[in-house]
Amino acid sequence: MTEKKLQGQVAVITGGSQGIGRSVALKLAHEGAHICLLARNEDTLNHVVAEISNLGGSACAYPVDASSNEQLTFTFEKIKEEHKSVDIFIHLVGGFKKIIPFEEITEQEWHDVFQLNLTSAFLSTQKVLPIMNDRGRIVYMGSIAGSGPNPYTKSYLPYGVAKAGLVVMVKHLAKEFGHRGITVNCVSPGTTATERVVAIRGEQGIRDLAQSNPLKHILQPEDSAAAVMFLVLPEAAGITGININVNAGSVMN
Ligand SMILES: NC(=O)c1ccc[n+]([C@@H]2O[C@H](COP(=O)([O-])OP(=O)(O)OC[C@H]3O[C@@H](n4cnc5c(N)ncnc54)[C@H](OP(=O)(O)O)[C@@H]3O)[C@@H](O)[C@H]2O)c1
Predict the structure, then answer these.
(1) Mean per-residue pLDDT over the chain, rounded
(2) Considering only CA atoms, which residue is closest to atom 28 of ligand 1?
(3) Which atom of ligand 1 sits closest to the CA of residue 94?
(4) Residues 157, 166: Cα–Cα separation, whole Å
(5) At 26, which CATH number?
(6) Is there a catalytic annotation at residue 156?
(7) Atom 17 (ligand 1) nearest CA
(8) d(Cα 88, Cα 110) in Å, to the nearest integer?
(9) If you take atom 2 of ligand 1, which residue's CA is the nearest one?
(10) Ligand 1, atom nearest to 23 Cα
(11) What does the pLDDT look like over 181-227, one tens digit per residue?
(12) Cα separation of 35 and 231, whole Å?
């Protein structure tokens, strides 16, 4: 039997209980990584932990609001206590609930979107790096919105600006922590048929949008999970500071 590629590694996945995060968690667990799943709702976390166990993998749940610095501190201390060190950190927490016209965006809304999509990445990376093993892997979840407004549908400005910040952050971190062999990269999905996004855009909206990409492909969570999987494999040790678009060709840059 061939050895699993991530056997013995500890992977921390924020936003791992639903959508793209759940798909990433299942993929990494399948390759033998022990998964530390972070999200707010304990029931959905436990559901994915059970799913992974039923498939023969191993996982544990850490309920946390990634918008709270205190809660993140507590959680990463607990992870250190229970696992000693981390090999892989995937930060998927992010998103938005509705598109608000520019003139109506309040300062609080701007702050909340940044807290969820960018500050949470900064804070949790600061906490994971001291317990990350050399040659570790960090992957952020960006967005097609991070390279500019979506040419085919409405985009949400604060979200796009925050996601663009992630793309720059990976370059700085890749340079600063390269001496430890740690790679830092970003995966930027196009509109993907997760429950949250179907609720915002509707089934038909998602199908219509897929007609505007060159592949006519409705993006699924597994599409982005495959890119994350590639970046954490031993074979990708030489790839750092990049952003991989997973958008069926909607935007090419
Ligand atoms: N789906 C798309 O079309 C799309 C496109 C481009 C980029 N993305 C990006 O991909 C990532 C995942 O998107 P998705 O559509 O898969 O999201 P999703 O289905 O809404 O899942 C979000 C995950 O994050 C957790 N979460 C949300 N807020 C949190 C918080 N404050 N603290 C801790 N956990 C939190 C959720 O669990 P709880 O609610 O229990 O906390 C859930 O596990 C996001 O960063 C999003 O911006 C998605």
Answers:
(1) 96
(2) 93
(3) 45
(4) 15
(5) 3.40.50.720
(6) yes
(7) 19
(8) 30
(9) 192
(10) 16
(11) 999 999 999 999 999 889 888 999 999 999 999 999 999 999 999 99
(12) 16
- Answer yes or no: is pLDDT of 1 > 90: no
Integer CA distances (angstroms), 65 to 50, 71, 207, 253, in order: 21, 6, 32, 33
Q: Is residue 213 part of a domain?
A: no
Domain membership of residue 63 as a residue range = 10-191+224-246
Please state, as a whole number, how many other Cβ atoms lie within 10 Å of the Cβ of residue 195.
Answer: 10
Helix (DSSP H) and strand (DSSP E) numbers for the chain = 9, 7
Flag whether 30 is in a domain: yes
Record the tokens describing residue 154, joined without a space. 């409405």
Q: Which atom, in ligand 1's list, is nearest to the CA of 66?
A: 32
Look at 11-15, 47-51, 94-98, 214-218 and tell me which has the smallest mean pLDDT.
94-98
* Annotated catalytic residue, options 62, 140, 156, 159: 156
Token pair listed for 192: 């993907």
